[in-house]
Amino acid sequence: MSNSAAPHSILSIDQITKVYYDELTQLARKNRRMSNSHLKKRTTLLFNKNLSTVNISGMFSQKVFVGGAPPGISDTEILNAFGKYGNFTIEKKKANEKSSFFYVIYESNQCVKGLLTTCVINSVGEFYTRIGTHIVQVIPWEINNSHYVPATNMTLLDNKKVVFIGGLHGKMTAKFIAEVFSYFGPIVMVTIDVDKYKYPIGSGRVAFSDSQGYFTAIMQEFIDIETPDFRKTVQVTPQLEDSLCYICKSEVGPFFCKDFTCYQYYCTLCWKLKHSGPGYVHHQPLIRDSKHKPKLGPILSKFSNLSLK
Ligand SMILES: [Zn+2]
Ligand SMILES: [Zn+2]
User: Fold this and answer.
1) Which of 125, 220, 281, 295 is 20 to 30 Å from 116 at the Cα level?
2) Which CATH number do you get for residue 196?
3) Strand, coil or helix: what is 271?
C-alpha cells in the first residue's frame, strides 16, 4: 500500500510505524530517567573505606574541578589564584546561594602538578587551595584511574558481558568500581568514560568474565553505593550495540528488551507484535543513549583486538 493510494483516514504502514516508534522512544527515555528510580530494583552496597587515593607523582588530566568558591567569584580572582601554575581557561562556572564551582583547564598536565604540590591535603586525601582568603577544594583526576584490569583475571573481553554504568561520583576510580561490581561476579575490566581532557564524564563500563556476573548486575537496575565520604546511586543497564531486529532480521533493532524471556533487540513493528500478547505487555524498551557512545580506551581496544584473533 503506497501513501498516495491510501484514503486520508487510513494510516499507511510507514505512518503507523512512526507513531509506534515515537511512543516506544518516549517510553524508553522515561525509563532511563532517574526520577522514577524508586520504582526500580536496587541494591545498597556499603564500603567502609576512603576513596581518595591520588598519587601525586601520577599523570593528571589537565582539567580540575574547583568547588566551594564564593558565589560571586570573579574571573580575575580565579586568574590570580590559578594563573601562577600556567595558562588556563574556565569552563562551566555555576553558582548556587552558598558557593560557586567550575572547571579549570590548563594548557598542560604539568600545570596541574604545580597546583597540586602547593595544595593542602587533608586527612582523607582531598586537595585544598586558596582564592584570596577563601579556601576551595580542587578535584584532580589521575588518568590511570580511568581503567582497571585485575591482574588475576586473564579472561578475554566479551562485549555481550559488558554493563553500562551511569551516575558515577567524581571520586570513583575504575579500581573502586571493580571492587563494587565484583560483588556480582568476577570482573575482566572497568573503563570510565572521559572527555577530550581525559576527565571523567560520569559514566563507564564494567566487563564481567561470565554471564552469571553480568546478569546478576543487570538485574540490579540501581546500586546505592555508600562510603564514609558520600552516597551515590549508580544506574546499571546492558551496554547496547547496533543490532538488527532479532525477529525480522532485516530492520535495524533500536529497542532492546531486557526481560529475560526476551533479552533481544527489536525493530518497531516486531516489538509491537512480540509485546502485544499476555505475559509480554509489561516489558519495557531500552534504547541506546546517543550522548554516551562508547569511547574505547587503550586497554579496551587492546582487548577487543585480542578477542577478534
Ligand atoms: Zn523486526
Ligand atoms: Zn520483551
Assistant:
1) 295
2) 3.30.70.330
3) helix
Q: Which residues contact 140 (CB under 8 A, 6 or more apart)?
A: 54, 60, 61, 64, 112, 116, 127
For the question of an ipTM over 0.90, the answer is: yes
Query: Ligand 2 mean position to 259 CA, how many Å?
Result: 5
Paired with 135 in beta bridges are 130
**Rounded distance from Cα 255 to ligand 2 centre (Å):** 10
Ligand 2 centroid – CA 258 distance (Å): 7
Residues 6+ apart with CB under 8 A from 67: 99, 101, 136, 137, 139
Q: 44 and 175: one domain? A: yes
Which structural domain, as residue segments, surrounds residue 72? 63-141
Task: Quote the ligand 1 centre to 243 CA distance (angstroms).
Answer: 11
- Residue 246: nearest ligand to its CA? 1
Chain segment 244-266, per-residue pLDDT in tens: 999 999 999 999 998 888 989 99
Q: Which residue is it, cell 546505592?
A: 224
